[in-house]
Amino acid sequence: MADPDLPDNWGRWGADDELGTLNLITDDVRAQAAAEVRTGRWVSLAQPITPNPMISSPFAPTTVDVSPVQQLMSYTGVGVSADLMLVTNHHAKSTHLDALAHWSTGDQVYPGRPRAEVVTAGGVTHASTSAFAAGIVTRGVLLDLAVDGPLPSGYAVTSHDFEEAERRLDVEVRPGDALVVRLGWPATPVPGTPTPGISVDAVRWMDRRGVALCAPDRGDAFPPLDPGGPSPLHGIGLGRLAMPLIDAVALDDLAALCAELERYSFLLSVAPPRVHGLTGIPVNPVALF
Amino acid sequence: MADPDLPDNWGRWGADDELGTLNLITDDVRAQAAAEVRTGRWVSLAQPITPNPMISSPFAPTTVDVSPVQQLMSYTGVGVSADLMLVTNHHAKSTHLDALAHWSTGDQVYPGRPRAEVVTAGGVTHASTSAFAAGIVTRGVLLDLAVDGPLPSGYAVTSHDFEEAERRLDVEVRPGDALVVRLGWPATPVPGTPTPGISVDAVRWMDRRGVALCAPDRGDAFPPLDPGGPSPLHGIGLGRLAMPLIDAVALDDLAALCAELERYSFLLSVAPPRVHGLTGIPVNPVALF
Amino acid sequence: MADPDLPDNWGRWGADDELGTLNLITDDVRAQAAAEVRTGRWVSLAQPITPNPMISSPFAPTTVDVSPVQQLMSYTGVGVSADLMLVTNHHAKSTHLDALAHWSTGDQVYPGRPRAEVVTAGGVTHASTSAFAAGIVTRGVLLDLAVDGPLPSGYAVTSHDFEEAERRLDVEVRPGDALVVRLGWPATPVPGTPTPGISVDAVRWMDRRGVALCAPDRGDAFPPLDPGGPSPLHGIGLGRLAMPLIDAVALDDLAALCAELERYSFLLSVAPPRVHGLTGIPVNPVALF
Amino acid sequence: MADPDLPDNWGRWGADDELGTLNLITDDVRAQAAAEVRTGRWVSLAQPITPNPMISSPFAPTTVDVSPVQQLMSYTGVGVSADLMLVTNHHAKSTHLDALAHWSTGDQVYPGRPRAEVVTAGGVTHASTSAFAAGIVTRGVLLDLAVDGPLPSGYAVTSHDFEEAERRLDVEVRPGDALVVRLGWPATPVPGTPTPGISVDAVRWMDRRGVALCAPDRGDAFPPLDPGGPSPLHGIGLGRLAMPLIDAVALDDLAALCAELERYSFLLSVAPPRVHGLTGIPVNPVALF
């Protein structure tokens, strides 16, 4: 944590904390989230994943699109069909939760443990997906910055953009909220085309507002906005603020439903498979209205 | 579908249907589900999973507990920690959704397609997890049959038990509901000890009531109640009624919260990773109150 | 075994046999094989395999060539580098041994066992790679049919071709030999181009000569020479004669060395990893001169 | 390479070398190896591996022995049976070749390249299994130190033991040879029982004699003979001398055959699957007499 000019939450919730900014989701926040559920309409924020088959055949295709999930159809010997899947937990084509231990600041992991102790060949012992095991339920807010089309290539999203969007969409980001940000770009970078991305200024704003969880369609710019500094969302948000990220969400359906209902807040249920000890895990976040 | 005495829904929603009884979840049902969300309290219905490491070491343990998830810590070469997981989609230690194509009746899959066409080496082409891709949101009802302790070994749950529980818990199972049933037994059979299980009579009752989805902690008895017939929940419920199952849920936390709140209905959000074409998939169902 | 006109060895070495034509490799054959080793020159008959990385990164390539081997670099936490590999045992880009249980004739596996008993979800219980566990050592003979270039597209190799090659190359295929056949084609079929292949007549000749093991660069034609009948090498050779195949060998180096040494016989050492219970396994056959 | 008192071969064969002591296997050595093949008798030096099934069933066993190989039986939809295997390349229950890049000395890999350049998330770029791709053929010598039973727990094998064995067995280790050493212990350490192991003195002797490849049944002692220093075989032999190791060989069959034939030299064929870019790979070494 060499740079004193960057914000961090190391130590804020004690030396053994594994939740980071999820601590900001209080009973009161959850009650406000519950109050958002009135119609029974809902929408998924996850990218659809077409698995890549592991075909054991000389006639399999010779080239395949890389998928976050590989599927193996099992021989069962009976009338039941079953399969296994091999999952790449961090993948741009997969909407996934980043655990705090995914990121190291220097050789330390939040809130100051040596990475070599936390990350072992046998799994992650602290600040892993165990923190998400029972699911995360909070109020979500969509700041749609792409109502008029995708943000320009290379654009740096700032706190000004967020506040302008709050005014335009008549919604307010409050402590404990999940902040969903739509830049209008696909999660997978296209080689040769600089993406827009979240700036350090925008992450500082999340810190001031008490954002508990951030879910952008396109988070850190690629190539980086500032190649010499830490990446804003992963390096500062995830690593220093201990704010979990939902990487690579798909937001077109959410944006359409918010526009239809003229409402940009909702209950967000984030419940990945209840697997402990991972660095990240695919998730299908659900916004309930 | 040789046995005309058994109920089925093949053809009820057309020859191309992939949803089965999920068709019963109408806008009205979802509105009722939304009305259940008032406090922001929530609980997970998933068993916790400790993954089994694939340790590449001569000093790895020589014996391991089998886990539905195997974890591979990746070498990244940078300060980021990442991993992959190998998932057995149908596993008694994993709370998972069974897709309709998981089960065959004779050599056919709902709603009457040849299994050999539906299940291929490259994946499942009909009635797979694609049906769950955007998540399932409906009203859930817990019928807790184990308030006074686990049901006896070998016990066959009947419609009478369900109706008695409805009266006792002051709740009613209605069309489109997710029926959550607690027998008080762990999902993993213990060798040598007959489990209780759901009877054919109980599944017929689900059909009459219009249950959209069934989530028992212990579903089909092991050994089978009727070794000569189809298994009630998998063979009749999943295979013939086309009623998706959430296999192997963990219900102690839900039972405790229902008792505390004196309320046995809730909104149930069932949102597995958005992976298409599988026979089943781990899920972390969330009950919202 | 419905067709009495096709040759088979079912029952020839008893009801419990797992070796098939490997029984023809006698001490005398091995002594002859040993006599071939005089120079210390050797050559591999295996295709090189470039594994496909399972990269856990948003910046991984979006399209990859399918490889029989996927490599995962492990995080070890120490100065040792280690990895795992996921291997597709039957793959046209991988030189591999086919176990007898790989093939079914009707619903039976050599020498007449029900496939459902032999092939289980937990592995293969009879005529698996266990038969190759200690390695196979015998005399090898190369019949190079492509000295003047690859055989024509769609060409059917016959016994006449074999006998003509014996005369031309001054070599004789004897009982217990491994027959290595070079058609001059790559193992991987090119879509749209019919390959040449081994005919039924040629397989009958192998039977008459007592070939113990067959290793062609391009074995069964694709598309099949006779779409209505069993494939010559897999259906008749592997399935009925119980003659193990080394699928997809690479023979250019062997052909060059044989031409240089003016000798088409050698000792062939076929020693795959000593893994029991598989349907097939990658192997690196070595010809010693 | 901080310690000048330890022997090393870094730079001996140039800055781009990937073969290490395999360079010592000259045509003359191979001719001598060929001269050993006279009878056609042969024996495997590999441990048998029973794969561990990935059974996708609620009735799978709850505890399993860890195996270096996991087997997945595939659904093929036709009468062909096929499978995949997931292989842990470095495993005490698997006879495997260690590539030079498996070991780092400080943060460098033979012959002085930064480990971070050589070992990448996408595979190994230098001194990997590519060096073994076409197989290794050389003269092998067995020094059986366990003729009268296993060596004592904690015993340190020295050059004196090797020279005494040479006299007793009437065999001589010469430049380019593969040295096979039998301590009479299983490859898998038994918790709580110190194994014997190869000493630094013995590795210095290998260096003086020009050993090209070393294959011990029990190599580096566990716990280490000298916890403060580098492990003799891996740290000095593999890492500094660039002498590939065949880890975890099984030598009882070889010892019996050598005793029967009263001959302790042979041709050793070491031909793992021809997979490039790995840190190690299972192999079935074959000794031919």
Report what the structure shows:
Four copies of one chain form a homotetramer. By secondary structure, chain A is α/β, with parallel strands linked by helices. Chain A has two domains: about 20-45 and about 95-289, 3-Layer(bba) Sandwich (Glucose Oxidase, domain 1), CATH 3.50.30.50; about 50-85, no CATH class. Chain A is about 20% helix and about 25% strand. The first copy, chain A, has a six-stranded mixed sheet with strand order 1-19-17-11-13-15. In chain A, strands 2-4-5 form a three-stranded mixed sheet, with no helix packed on it. In chain A, strand 7 and strand 8 (about 115) form a beta hairpin. The model of chain A has no long low-confidence stretch (mean pLDDT about 95). Chains in contact: A-B, A-C, A-D, B-C, B-D, C-D.
CATH fold node name of the largest domain in chain A: Glucose Oxidase, domain 1
Strand line-up of the largest beta sheet of chain A: 1-19-17-11-13-15
Structural class by sheet pairing and helices of chain A: alpha/beta
Poorly predicted segments of chain A: none
Strand content of chain A: 15-25%
